[in-house]
Amino acid sequence: MDDTSTELEGRLRDFITKVCQDIGPRSPCGPAEGACATYYESVLQDYCDEVATEQFFARPSAYKWSFRIPMILYLAAVAFYWWLPVASLVFAAAGFIIMIGEMMMMHEVIDFAFPKRPSVNVVGKIKSAGETKQVVVIEGHLDSNWEFPLMRLMGAAFTIVPGVNTFSAALLLLLSLVKSISVLASIDLGAVFAAVELGLFWVFVVAAPFAVIQLFFMLSNRPVMGANDNLSAMAVGKELAAFLSVPANRLANVEVWIVAVGCEEIGSKGSKAFAAAHRQELQGAKVFVVDMVGNKNAPLEVSKAEMVSAVKMSPELVQLVCTTAAELGIPVKVSSSAGFTDATSFRQVGIAATSILSMPTSRRTFYYHTRNDTLENMAFENLVSTYKICAALLKKLDES
Predict the structure, then answer these.
(1) How many CB atoms lie within 10 A of CB 32?
(2) What is d(CA 18, CA 24) in angstroms, rounded to the nearest whole number?
(3) Among 123, 134, 233, 329, which residue has the fewest nearby CB atoms (within 10 Å)?
(4) Given a cut of 70, is residue 2 above it in pLDDT?
(5) pLDDT at 308 over 80
(6) How large is the average pLDDT for residues 62-83?
């Protein structure tokens, strides 16, 4: 690492250290999230031409209960299957809709039943020196999640639990639908169906402990530090703002927005609010979401799709990141993310976006969403590389 990279790493480390020491964990809609927004606003004031905070409202309790309510409904559907199959169908359908809608598609299915809480997005704008022909957004998030105990204990294998529950819930929904139709229409489905029904019912009973585990042990009330997820992005954004604020580095025709949103961890609420508020301004813009790029021994990745939300990223931006990284000699892997990032919020409203991220490659380095997501468990090489890629692609966009 050359001297410039060493100095850059030091500044990135200093920023994350200060937030961790002075503010700490930043649960969605909590006072620490607000304090982090206030601090970041003050930091960007030194570099940006305009800085604004934009308030929105979210319902963090709905996020926690979106893990639990489907499991309660699943267990109720199993319990009622033999005696009231229509009630079982209602429970199974409601649970499946909540599970898919809230956790996969980021729709607010049950949010109306929970209290609103304020959160905030921070937006810093660095104007172009001449006529603005392009807006580019570099985005990360302010908040950190509550701890997932299963992630800490199992690493990526924790997905077995929600995977079993999703499969069981879908199968129970199908079986209870057939059963209800046969009961309501007085149709005798015969001995074969009865045998299949009994076998599958015992599968549901055996799968019930997985539902209990998700109900009680998937998500805790302990907020995590979130040094990597996602102070790493905020640190990169701050350094980009500092670089672009120097008159010699100001872009001629590209206006850059450095954005830090709240409530990413509870379903990308901040990025959805931001994308909705600026939808017209951002038509034709390019959005690069930076997310937890400080994982140890993990390659940088650029997302071409997010499988859970079934959203495809902008091929143009994926190619731009790859080309720019290759020119810098920085390896970047093109991937389909198993989860979702804020890029989904922009793609869902037709704005070009992709994510630059890294994912843990082993259980021993699986720190995000756990109490181990601390400064001591971060690697800074990818933060430096992400900064260099973003700075270079901004220059390339300006020159084009």
Answers:
(1) 18
(2) 9
(3) 329
(4) no
(5) no
(6) 96
Give the C-alpha separation, 247 to 243, whole Å: 9
The residue type found at 105 is M
Q: Which of 141, 344, 380 is nearest to 237 (CA)?
A: 141
Structure tokens at 235: 């640190």
Q: Is 219 helix (H, G, I), strand (E, B) or coil?
A: coil
β-pair partners for 365:
none
Helix (H, G, I), strand (E, B) or coil at 56: strand
Burial of 198 (0-12, 13-18, 19+ CB in 10 A): exposed
Q: Which stretches does DSSP call E strand in 107-179? A: 117-126, 134-141
- Cα–Cα distance measured from residue 394 to residue 35, given in angstroms and rounded to the nearest whole number: 30
8 Å CB contact between 25 and 144: yes
Quick check: 72 and 223 in contact, CB under 8 A? Answer: no
296's torsion region: left (phi>0), alpha (psi -120 to 50) or beta? beta
Q: Which residues lie across from 306 on neighbouring strands?
A: 311, 337
* Contacts with 294 (C-beta within 8 Å, 6 or more apart), sequence order: 227, 228, 232, 358, 378, 379, 380, 382, 383
Q: In 3D, which of 358, 232, 230, 383 has the Cα closest to residue 301? A: 358
Cis preceding linkage at 372, omega within 30: no
| Residue 3 banded pLDDT, cuts 50, 70, 90 | low
Query: What value does the mean pLDDT take over residues 135-153?
Result: 96
**How many CB atoms lie under 10 A from the CB of residue 263?**
29
Spatial separation of the C-alpha atoms in residues 56 and 327, rounded to whole Å: 40
In single-letter form, the type of residue at position 246 comes to V
Q: Which residue matches tokens 């409530």?
A: 263
